[in-house]
Amino acid sequence: MRNVAHRFIGAVDALNYRLGRVVMYGIFVLMGILIWSSVSKTFFLPSLWTLELAQFAMVSYYILGGPYSLQLGSNVRMDLLYGAWSPRKKAWADVITVLFLIFYLCVMIYGAVGSTAYSLGYWGSEPFSFFGGLITGSSEIGRMETSPSVWSPWMWPIKAIMVLGLFLMLLQCVSELLKDVLRLKGEAI
Prior knowledge:
Keywords: Cell inner membrane, Cell membrane, Membrane, Transmembrane, Transmembrane helix, Transport. The protein has one domain. The two termini are 14 Å apart. The longest helix has 33 residues. The protein contains seven helices and no strands. Helices cover 74% and strands 0% of the residues.
């Protein structure tokens, strides 16, 4: 069992580390979009797509960078008490809090999958069966949701990125949970 946990931790940490290192350069994409927005508003006709694309880029940057941030321990904590605790007491606190986070992420993933199915034109109440049907060919994509803006882009790409980011965050939380359990058992990670 320990060997499986170590392999899971290694695989998830490696995936989120590599993805996080790539996604962290997304801030430059966001900056480029906002610079173009400023230049086009000042010297040319204003681009209608820049604000919404900047929002999509920021969501992608934030949601795909979250697991990397959690892995590095750069998430916000209340260090008033936590900083003075022993490593064992910190591990116990982390085990308890990460269980709440895992529950929250499961609820978020369920809602995000439903929202993504809706953006692909599915109006039923079983979004997971809709995606299963897309794979097997028994479901069809309906009228796709678009943004109500003038640019009117499809919404499914950013919603799919949100599902992916939430799923990767869930995997990283399980990895952190396993690390804390192994620490409580006295094992080196």
